[in-house]
Amino acid sequence: MLKKPKVAVFKLASCDGCQLALLDAEDELLVVAGALDIAYFPEASRRMLKGPYDVGIVEGSITTPHAHEYIREIRKMSQILIVIGACATAGGIQALRNWKDVKEFTSIVYATPEYISTLERSMPVSSFVHVDFELRGCPINKYQLIEVINALLNKRKPNISTHSVCIECKLKGNTCITVAHGIPCLGPVTQAGCGAICPSYKRGCYGCFGPMDSPNTASLSRHFAEKGQSKYDTMLMFRGFNAYAEAFRKESDAQEK
Q: Can you tell me the distance from the alpha carbon of 140 to that of 14, in angstroms, rounded to the nearest whole number?
């Protein structure tokens, strides 16, 4: 009998939403779990087996010195390292602090800020260790995670689309809310994966899955400006769940000048 791949799921600075997306896979997860040995997953099991692991799955950003040390340990224990969600791939919503002085925040929030140990910035996992695959989303698409795990089990490249949310809108037959209704939308520069949820309900895309492959953010910003949107409001649009993803960070900085 072939030995099942040993998998571990770790949490850093995050809301647990991506781990819950994995648990929400239900029937699909049961099929996958039958081919895996889920050795470490505090969110779902009391069984905690020590490494090394064939696959390590990490949710969350690096925000503290402890997390910095911990991710290096995880990397050493994991033959393959997959990071999931906006926090792990782009620093998450907490990366908004990267534009400010974190010491000012701690002095305002905590009565004894000297006891708070934190890094100046919230950063993606890839800033500290080598990552084998990044899965975007806030939260991730559970079917995409199943696809990544399945691909690893079968030693093939994961089939994850890198085109924009606009393609998903076209596939669903949605009328473009920006063209038809003048609603600002990040869909043209955001990677697909959500199924175009927001545009389907006449709301602009918030960029939950981060930048698509080769996004033309400057062109989209010019379009917003032509429609009367202020540079400040455009900056805020790019500073969301994936604010510190390179393409979104650079464009928000350009709009702030």
A: 13
Asked if 34 and 126 sit in the same domain, the reply is: yes
CA 186 – CA 175 distance, rounded (Å): 15
Co-location of 96 and 216 in the same domain: no
Q: Report yes or no on 252 lying in a domain.
A: yes
pTM, to two decimals: 0.92
Rounded Cα distance, 78 and 151, in Å: 17
How far apart are the C-alpha atoms of 225 and 212, rounded to whole Å?
21
Residue 160 covered by a domain:
no
In a domain, residue 159? The reply is: no
* CATH code assigned at 147: 3.40.50.700
Q: What is the dihedral of CA 141, 142, 144, 147, to 10 degrees?
A: 180
Are 142 and 176 members of one domain?
A: no
Q: Which domain holds residue 50?
A: 6-153
Segment 2-52, tens digit of pLDDT: 678 899 999 999 999 999 888 887 677 666 667 788 899 998 888 899 999
Separation of alpha carbons 257 and 254, rounded Å: 6
| β-strands 6-11, 37-40 pairing | parallel
- What pLDDT, in 10s, does the model give residues 99-121? 999 999 999 999 999 999 999 99
Residue 235 contacts residue 186 (beta carbons within 8 Å): no
Beta carbons of 51 and 18 less than 8 angstroms apart = no
Exposed/middle/buried for 82, CB within 10 Å: 0-12, 13-18, 19+? buried
Decide: 54 and 77 in contact? Cβ < 8 Å.
no
Please indicate, yes or no, whether residues 117 and 184 belong to a single structural domain of this protein: no
